[in-house]
Amino acid sequence: MMLGHATRVYVYQGPVDMRKQIDGLSLLAQEIAAEPLSGAVFVFFNRQRDKVKLLWWDRHGFWVAYKRLERGRFRVPKLSELDYASLLLALEGIDLSVRRLGAVKAKKVA
């Protein structure tokens, strides 16, 4: 993807008709965040959760990315805002609702 790690990612929580194109998706993006032209990525899943569309703006226009699974379903994140790493995990089918372990602080043993 042509996105940076600092990119904000917003997930639309309802099912979306995958026939929607840029104009329809940008209207839905306004429901999530104030400005679809901000450069943030907006993620939309269909009702069956086997298709996903990503919408984002770069300097010259909108990009739309579309992925259809041949088997299985996406696990839609319950969070409406993700970081870039979580987006990549969600697109690979990893369940983000599983509790993650925190960082461990290690001490030097003498």
What does this structure look like?
This protein is α+β, with helices and mostly antiparallel strands. The chain has one domain. Helix content is 17%, strand content 22%. It is built from two helices and five strands. Strands 4-3-2-1-5 form a five-stranded mixed sheet. β1, α1 and β2 form a beta-alpha-beta unit. The chain starts with 8 loop residues before the first strand and ends in a 19-residue tail after the last helix.
Describe, in short, the structure shown.
The protein is an alpha+beta fold and 110 residues long. Helices cover 17% and strands 22% of the residues.
Q: Helix- and strand-based class?
A: alpha+beta
Spatial shape: globular
Number of domains: 1
Number of beta strands:
5
**Uncertain parts:** none
* Strand line-up of the largest beta sheet: 4-3-2-1-5
Using the CA coordinates, give the radius of gyration. Answer: 16 Å
Taking the sheet with the most strands, its summary is:
5 strands, mixed
The overall pLDDT average reads 84
* H-E order: EHEEEEH
Tell me the fraction of residues in β-strands, as a range. 15-25%
Please give the alpha-carbon distance between the first and last residues: 46 Å
Q: How many DSSP helices?
A: 2
Helix content: 10-25%
